[in-house]
C-alpha cells in the first residue's frame, strides 16, 4: 500500500433528506464528522471546510461532553454540556452549560438521541452569550483528529486566521494562482467529501515573512507549547538588602 493509502482519511456526512432521521451512536461512529454537504432536497446547504477554517470562522471552539437533552423551544433544541476544555472564546462570556441548535431539519438542525456523547469538539457561533451550532459547523470526536490537527486547534490555527484557504474544485485543470493572502487547498482526486492528505491532516496555512500565505507542516515533535511566564517577584528594600 502506498504512502497515501496508509494515511488516515476523515469522512464527512451528507445532510439526510428525511426530516425524521436522527443521529444515533452507530451513525456517529460510522460517520464521525457531522458536516452537511450541499443537498438538493432541503434548504440546508454547506461547504466543506479545512479544519483551520472551522477554527477561524467560529466564535467559540470547545471540547465537551453532551450530558442530556435540555429544554427545547418551538425553534431550537438544547443539550446540557460539560465543557472540559475551551480552545477559543471571546472575553466576558458567562459560563456555558448548554448548547443550542435549530430544531428544523431544513435549517441544518442537529439531533442526537443518545444518553451521552463524550469528548466532542464543537465549533459554533455565539448569540446573546449562548453557544449555537448546526450540521454545517464542526462536531467531531476529539480522539479521531490527528495529533497535528489537535495541536492546531489547541495552539496553532489561530496564527493563520489572517489567511484564507480556498479549495481547488476544478482539479482536472491547473489550480488558480492564489492571492497573497490565500492558500490553495488540494485534495486527492478532487474529493472534498473527506479530509485526506498532508494539507488537511498535517498542515496549516500561515503568513510568511514576505507577506504571502503558504502551507506549513505542523511539527509536533519540536513544538514548544506557549506558557504564561510567572509574575515578577515582589521585593521590598529589606529583601533587596538580604539578596
From TrEMBL:
Residues involved in Zn(2+) binding: 44
GO MF, one annotated term: metalloendopeptidase inhibitor activity
Domain NTR: 44-161
Keywords associated with the record: Disulfide bond, Metal-binding, Metalloenzyme inhibitor, Metalloprotease inhibitor, Protease inhibitor, Secreted, Signal, Zinc
GO terms for biological process, alphabetical: negative regulation of membrane protein ectodomain proteolysis; response to cytokine; response to hormone
Subcellular compartments: Secreted
Transmembrane stretches, start-end: none
Name of the featured protein: NTR domain-containing protein
Lineage, top ranks: Eukaryota, Metazoa, Chordata, Craniata, Vertebrata
SMART domains: NTR (SM00206)
Amino acid at each position: 500500500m502506498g504512502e497515501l493509502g496508509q494515511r488516515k482519511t476523515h469522512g464527512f456526512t451528507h445532510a439526510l433528506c428525511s426530516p425524521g432521521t436522527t443521529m444515533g451512536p452507530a451513525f456517529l461512529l460510522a460517520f464521525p464528522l457531522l458536516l452537511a454537504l450541499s443537498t438538493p432536497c432541503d434548504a440546508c446547504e454547506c461547504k466543506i471546510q479545512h479544519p483551520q477554517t472551522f477554527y477561524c470562522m467560529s466564535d467559540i471552539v470547545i471540547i465537551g461532553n453532551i450530558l442530556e437533552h435540555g429544554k427545547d423551544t418551538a425553534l431550537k433544541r438544547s443539550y446540557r454540556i460539560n465543557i472540559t476544555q475551551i480552545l477559543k472564546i471571546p472575553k466576558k462570556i458567562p459560563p456555558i452549560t448548554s448548547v443550542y441548535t435549530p430544531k428544523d431539519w431544513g435549517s441544518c438542525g442537529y439531533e442526537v438521541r443518545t444518553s451521552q456523547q463524550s469528548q466532542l469538539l464543537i465549533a459554533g457561533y455565539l448569540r446573546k452569550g449562548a453557544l449555537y451550532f448546526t450540521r454545517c459547523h464542526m462536531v467531531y470526536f476529539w480522539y479521531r483528529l490527528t495529533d497535528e490537527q489537535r495541536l492546531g486547534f489547541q495552539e496553532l490555527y489561530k496564527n493563520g486566521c489572517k489567511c484564507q484557504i480556498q479549495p481547488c474544485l476544478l482539479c482536472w485543470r491547473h489550480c488558480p494562482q492564489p492571492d497573497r493572502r490565500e492558500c490553495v487547498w488540494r485534495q486527492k482526486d478532487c474529493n472534498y467529501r473527506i479530509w485526506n492528505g498532508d494539507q488537511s491532516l498535517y498542515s496549516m496555512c500561515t503568513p510568511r515573512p514576505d507577506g504571502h500565505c503558504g502551507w506549513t507542516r505542523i511539527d509536533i515533535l519540536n513544538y514548544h507549547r506557549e506558557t504564561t511566564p510567572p509574575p515578577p517577584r515582589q521585593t521590598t528594600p529589606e529583601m533587596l538588602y538580604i539578596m
